[in-house]
Fold each of these.
Amino acid sequence: MPGGDLLVRGGTLVVPEGTFEADVLIEDGTIVMIGRGLSPAGHEVLDARGMLVLPGVVDEHVHMREPGLEYKDDFTHGTMAAAAGGVTTVIEMPNTLPPVDDADKLRRKADLLSGRAYVDFALLGVLHDENLDELEGMLGAGAVGFKAFLGPTTGNIPPPGDGSIYEALEKSSRLGFTVAFHGENWDLVRMFTERVRSEGKVDPLAHLRSRPPVCEEEAAQRIALYARRTGGRALIVHVAAAEAINVVRRARSDGVEVYAETCPHYLLLSADDYERYGALMKVNPPVRERDHQRELWRAVNDGTIQTLGSDHAPHSREEKSGDIMSAAAGVPAVQTFLPLMLDAALKGKMPITKIPELMARNPARLFGLYPKKGSLSVGSDGDLAIVDPKAEWTVKAEDLYAKHPMTPFDGLRVRGKVVYTILRGVVVAESGRVAISEPRGEWVIGRT
Ligand SMILES: [Zn+2]
């Protein structure tokens, strides 16, 4: 799809290094000039005075459910939600049906999703015990990295054993890709879950007790150890426990290539909220007590947490109802991702520059998409999120594009509104609504 021409004039650019006023000129979908007083030369002009101009968000962690789980949600709804929320690239997880575990399945998934994408997308392959020989083939076919589910997940992919994890990280060291880990020890989760089940408890805190911090801490230690010994690059996604953060902080200070992601729900919700939201806020690993939340914020601000992801994980309403132990884990999150973090930044929880750093540049780097994606610079794709920092509005579940719109943030008053989402020079969403009639997102292939 041809890119657009656009001059974004008078905004305040927000990049990891700081903020400054400048115009951005996009030609044929690519940023060709950044500077003051640029002349439109016939291009369409977007007045961004009083607004913040951020790189479009690269959401490294979405489960759009297609193919195979369309009753939960699909790629059309998911990428419309992304566009509405200022996300211009999504990195789609491989636990769809069938799981993406070889080059052929990866290509077929890319073919299927192309033509349904309202934003650009990249694909991860899955890692399990039977497909170590497929990793090179998947990279060749366009995978931007791999995901290993160490704990139980949607799609019931068996977790890889230690040997497979080690070998995958050896390959990572040699070939330069990132392995993303769902970092919970399956055996421990199973034991604690059985213990809670045998007590017959299904109160709102039961889920939290079924996956205590040691499940994350053990997985983080193992991943950090193997990354240390192999020189491979590991990203532990959705870290919720302070103990796991401490493991990552120590390993990183020794120069180990281990990265940590957390998600808005861990930063903004705590165990105090289970009484009110119950299964609606059930995620894996669970949202923990306030002490953990405090440590996560500290880790965001001291650089231990290097990325944020939404962990967009929709389910049907039936799956999210009932008691917390039987309900599905995960909630639609891609549309609220940037708004929630903007609100947090504008209220002083972290510098606003953390948004382009943790939600654009770093994810793009880890998955070989930088500087095409995740960067506000000449030569990068003209992907922008333009934000009014003074606007206040209320998050409403009914405004979500998800097939089954629900969010624990329903009714939350937030500051900072995504006014325009620009994908390769074209306004794809305006004021929270998709502004194009046909999808124009493309599959992007990484450079590892
Ligand atoms: Zn996930």
Amino acid sequence: MRKETQCVHSGTIKDEKMGGINTPIFTSSAFGYLDRDDISYPRYFNTPNQKAVVEKLCALEGAEDGVLFSSGMAAISTTILAFAGAGEHVVMMDELYGGTHAFATDEFKRLGIDYTFAATDAESVCSAVKENTKLVVIESPTNPLLSVIDIQKVAAFARKHHLVTVIDNTFATPINQNPLKLGIDVVVHSGTKYLGGHSDLCCGVSVTTHEKADRIRSVARHLGGSLNAMTCYLLERSLKTLAVRVERQTKNARNIAHFLEEHPTVRRVHYPGLPGCKGSMIAKSQMHGFGAMLSFELDDAIVNAARFVKKLRLIKPAVSLGGIETTICSPAVTSHAKLSAAERQRIGVTDSLLRLSVGIEQVDDLLEDMQAGLNC
Ligand SMILES: Cc1ncc(COP(=O)(O)O)c(C=O)c1O
């Protein structure tokens, strides 16, 4: 099946009893154990609704197996702890999502895990590897600067040195990028974003091989963080439209990126689909589409970023991203607020940087809203 079809059909559990065409919602947290090989329990990550969603996501990412979590951070933290422990070293990119960055800086020392933040390029990531490195964690495109790293290069180097690689594929989505096919070991997503797609649920997922999924599941059983049946069902329903949503959002984002690039009040646009953007050639070689996230810096001397956001009528100032509605935020005071001002400055998250999550609206309405805001 092609992706659009996988979105609709993969993983669906037949409703044998009533003949309904959707996966039924199995609300039980207590399941019989007699005459069964596998005991089902929500925190064992193996209930019917969890399995249905995992199967769909595995089909979309080209994975053998996966684990569904109650948040993106549960997926990321559990996956990292499954492959790195005390006395071991993790290489991470310094542009990782703020929450992942903060997980390392706030918790690793106490856990005895050594780490290095490397710049967002394959050479820097590979040269940060040490004798005791076990894990490499990357993200591409990054939140919020849309930087792109050569995934294949990192994966090949890590494989040669027997390191596990993890990528956060949230911004790209399985529709626009499939890192397992580029040699990465584990793909994680904040399903709260595009997979859910309607800004009404929180979840995360790790997809990989059977062997690595077993390892992640065994740590996950200790840490908890499983997803309930109702949210699994909502997620499964949302995933049926993932391909059409992301296709439309990507098209809208491309139009807006070009509009902003031409606009005299805009200093810089970060979008991997713009030929002038750093990393655009790599993005072209490893992404099927450039996604629906972009960020831009206004020329402070002409338009104040905070005032511009307040002038918008249709585009909502909101945290999170990936919903069907277009939202805007200032990463310096939201996703990256936990970083010090010096760290933000170093990686380029300036106070005038704005991040746009483009929705499925008619693009002319979005452009008119932005134009009106920029004119003020
Ligand atoms: C790229 C990325 N990864 C991970 C996360 C964490 O996901 P969650 O908020 O679902 O825990 C986020 C949240 O904003 C994100 O943007």
